[in-house]
Protein 1
Amino acid sequence: MSGIEKTEYSVPSQPPRREHVDPQAQQGEHEAELSLRPKSLAEFIGQPKVRDQLGLVLNGARRRGVTPDHVLLSGPPGLGKTTMSMIIAQELGTSLRMTSGPALERAGDLAAMLSNIMEGDVLFIDEIHRIARPAEEMLYMAMEDFRIDVIVGKGPGATSIPLDIPPFTLVGATTRAGMLTGPLRDRFGFTAQMEFYDVADLTKVVDRAARILGVHIDPDAACEIASRSRGTPRIANRLLRRVRDYAEVHGDGHIDLAAAQGALEVFDVDSLGLDRLDRAVLSVLVKGHGGGPVGVNTLAVAVGEESSTVEEVCEPYLVRAGMIARTGRGRVATAAAWRHLGLTPPDHALGMHLSEEQD
């Protein structure tokens, strides 16, 4: 027990809250997001390749007077896949019908939705990689032939009734394109890969959101919020709302650099966008295990979180930021992680020699 007491980290009594920098949509956030979402491709900030390619697909279909090909939007959460589906329907002047993969548990669930579709409508399925297999197999025929077979009855007396459906455009969104089956992926005529945003584009996102919210913000304050938003517009908008609260409580509502920095410090979002859980993982890895390698289950126990949370929510950004590396033996802290914690990295730290050459 004495050895445990001497370690420099401890298990927190409660899991660290990370709602501010979690790219997943939070409960009760839909209305706030809806007011900030752009309504057209021209208003959409960032993703220039996706906007140009999608514009060609939609304009070509309009010129020919046909329904556009089915669209697959792939990328991490919070980058605007749902917003893009709304823009597609808006650009086409049609209705948008929304559902999610987990909600389509049976083929009948999908059949009920498809039977109500009108010609030219856009059907948006979020997290389409989680759709149940029976519904997915029905979707094949609907996407290709605009027809579904509805099974009536059970057992030997079951009858298949063909049902024609009007031409429609399916927009599927996924955060895990690798989990899509080959037959489903091949039926999409256009696939777009959404990329993380740079600070310049995120600053524009913050400026636009501030105008919509009626908030006065200085350019350097907008840039500060953008630089801590982990390349994700949803996080940028969320942090802006928290900074607005801080500015209204501690000032006159005007957001300057000091207000932005003070608010982000209160909400435990550091200069790189890391929160308490991110820093706890790095601290365990560096201070508790000398930089690793350490298994993800060990890290999760040390910070008081589920291993899936550490692996799916925390790790992706730390890897992208160059703080940790995944190896066959476990997670390893890089020289950048040591420095971010204010420590001198050892000579064997990953990336140590590369950083010295850059210096």
Protein 2
Amino acid sequence: MHSTRRASSHLRLIPVLGLLAALLLPLGMTLAPRATAATATAAPAADPVRIMPLGDSITGSPGCWRAVLWNRLVNSGYPDIDFVGTLPPQGCGQAHDGDNEGHGGELVTNVADQNLLPGRLAATRPDIVVMHFGTNDVWSSIAPDRILAAYTKLVTQMRASNPDMRILVAQLIPMNPSSCAACAQRVVDFNARIPDWARGTGTDRSPVTVVDQWTGFSTATDTYDGVHPNASGDAKIAARWFPALAAVLDAGVPQDPGGPGDPGEDPAACTARFRAVSSWQGGYQGEVTVTNTSAAAVPGWSATVVPAGGARLTQAWNGTLTTAADGTATVTNAAWNGALAPGASATFGFVATAPATAGAPAATVTCTAKTPAA
């Protein structure tokens, strides 16, 4: 839905002023001079904020939580919003902006592998993406690592479309279909991975916010088939999206980012994600995956690793290791894995020593992408 603003009330004001002048002038009273065009013209109103609901049948078939969310936003003072998507409304029994990108039966891994999202982004140009995606992948027993890799690729494509994209990602609602006894636990296992993924993927310019749609949602009372929400489920989903989305709208969303290469776009950007591979008394093996999140190829990268609990990196492979006195480690790409196309990743491994009291392996990781030579 595209917001329109009517000027009819402003136009009706002119004859009223003329009548008022005719009544007052015979009494010896005068009206103040009309404001000049420069002072009377209001600043142009901002375009509506474009919000894409992205996912599968839980979002789009019919996905009536979108209707509940839309009306709550409008009734709470957010009128200048536009839900966008290449799919039309599908009913739901209440007036709302029903455009969406919830394709029934889709797997997020297929959308990533087949590069389906860029065309949909180009057609709708969202400022915010609200994503509940992966239920079909979990049902199909696809590994969490592969689903999260698809998430990362989609986020990269979102930022190529809009470097300032705001991204809200759901921890999936529970699933307990009669034909999949293992699905309930698979959702739990996958949801547990999402917060760490988001921390490694979000940036100051394009933050990723995790919204917990799992807690308090019951497949027995909030779905009609163990998977798809009923009216009670729609209300719960909308209630979880609302505060997160309202916070983004309150903070303000940059608009009209321009095309690739326009001033202000990050020429080189990346994210880094840590994973513990194995651990033992006194140490562990870890790995870090660096992903190019910019819209252009980068010629190289470096990653900073700050291990928790007093651990220190002692060796690394697939990169060159340097360690500061405080234990902060920097790993620079090897000659063969520095160049990364948009969305491409490189992984390096390392071994760290750790005190017996260090606890589970953990590290804070960041990365810097080299800027291509002019």
Protein 3
Amino acid sequence: MPLSPEQQADIDDQRAESHQTLRATVPGMEARLYRAHEVLDHGLVRVIDYMGDDAAITQAARVSYGRGTKSVQNDEGLIRYLMRHWHSTPFEMCEIKLHVKLPVFVARQWIRHRTANVNEYSARYSVLDREFYIPAPEHLAAQSSINNQGRGAVLEGDEAARVLETLKSDADRAYDHYESMLSQDGQQGLARELARMNLPANVYTQWYWKVDLHNLFHFLRLRADPHAQYEIRVYADVICEIVKDWVPLAYAAFEEYRLGGAQLSATAVAVVKRMIAGETVTQETSGLTKREWGELMGVVG
């Protein structure tokens, strides 16, 4: 399980405390504060703190003339306009801080988004837990034959069993060696900062991750995409549900124009116009590469 009894008790204590505030709060986020949302076999995501709401976005956008005439409809329309035209600064007025527990190889993908504040669990100071990500059988897949970054058919039978056993035994053996190198029983023991180097990339780490809404949307646009690696996508999916409770108007606009939308090149737009005009366009006459043509056909059918 992602949480130990002691960690759950700490969360219960945090949720039992209540503080009066004059700042904007969101009921959906208040309900989520400190709660752990389980991800993968040992991972979690939980909200530690947040700042701002949908109104903070429109307030920033309207700063030149104050509140003016406003209503829910006006707020929604303004937020959709900002999202549609790629305005970023108003969305930066909202921030969220998450506690995330995740496998190291997922963390190394995640950290490529360099627009957040991160403080990670230190294996120089502390001993890592014996927790490793072991994929469920349905997520054990062969290398894709058409995508160098993706997966192909799911492994089955003896091959799947062999791979699972290898993953488990390698992780256990590495941790046994990690513990023995740290041991103080009659020996000096290796420094933690050196002993950790023998651990595999599926060991779990954790961090506090603070990011503004604009950069969070960029993260979600890439990592909640169906083509993203499964192990990071499930974290993005959980965060999407959290953001939906936090800033529902902004999330709806994000879903409309980013997650559910498509961006076309100038050549692709010209191809679509030719098709609308009744011209029969093929890949050979389109001016697009085979891959670009395939992506366009995926959008327009």
Protein 4
Amino acid sequence: MALSDESCRSLVPRYLYSSPSSSQRLFNLDMPFAKIDQIQNQGMVPPSKYSSPPAPKAAGRRFMIPAPSEKIEMFSPAYYAACGAGGSLSCGLTHTGITPLDLVKCNMQIDPAKYKSTASGFGILLKEQGVKGLFRGWVPTLLGYSVQGACKMGFYEFFKKYYSDIAGPEYAAKYKTLIYLAGSASAEVIADVALCPMEAVKVRVQTQPGFARGLADGLPKFVKAEGVLGLYKGLVPLWGRQIPYTMMKFASFENIVEMLYKHAIPTPKEECSKSLQLGVSFAGGYVAGVLCALVSHPADNLVSFLNNAKGATVGDAVKKMGLWGLCTRGLPLRIVMIGTLTGAQWGIYDSFKVFVGLPTTGGAALPAATKP
């Protein structure tokens, strides 16, 4: 019984053939291999155009079969998983890389009498704890921000699409900044639940010398002292710091990148090289990071204060630091730290997206609403 072309094709593993349109096929599976060899020898069709692979006639004969170009389907579960993986890399690596800056910043917030400036803070830590001490708390930082980054980026892409579908194409375009704000806020609520326990241990390890060497001994000691719920004591202040930070981070980044492609770069985004697009991502991320630092700094001081002092309240923090201190203590260092951090995060995130075959973030229309 003769098999149809499609039936034969279904018996061949997909990676063994390319898939040109029917009008482009010069021969099919029923064509004898001798005829295929004749066409090849006459130079009519290079081997890379075969719709079906010829069997090698002798050992050592080489032939090449192009694999189909696979791409991740936009807004599919695999797409959101890829965005989560990129977010985990971007946030985990960057936060871990700036552990020394974060360590000095936290100590300046907790003990400004001792750590009067960035330079003196580094000098004191080097003198008392050595170079190794500058990376104290890197393990909870890496784990906490890797999980947080995965939730933040993955859920942001999900909620951005979800809210765009609810609004419809017209309102999604008209109120795109509101969609950026709502999507990033929704994602950060989830991400901070994952981050909070590691953040609590990190701050305690970094600001109380002798408390613990790292996560392995710090987490059990923290739980023994304050219970499991104590790990979430700073969740509300963490939301207060991270939600405005993330809303500013995503909304400003999306709008800055759009303005760069519209006014500073004469070429449409789709025609720009990938290296230029990644440069735009870093630049937009750096500016967005400076704005993030200004918005979220008071809450950052609160988080450091509450996680350092057992039984402390927000009122205690305000009374001891004052409103001006909450807004300004450690701010210059945090502006440099967060600007660099955010720029690097967007650069790494979009580099990962390009690596897996996805477009970079920003500079294009919002995702189209789902059509029936």
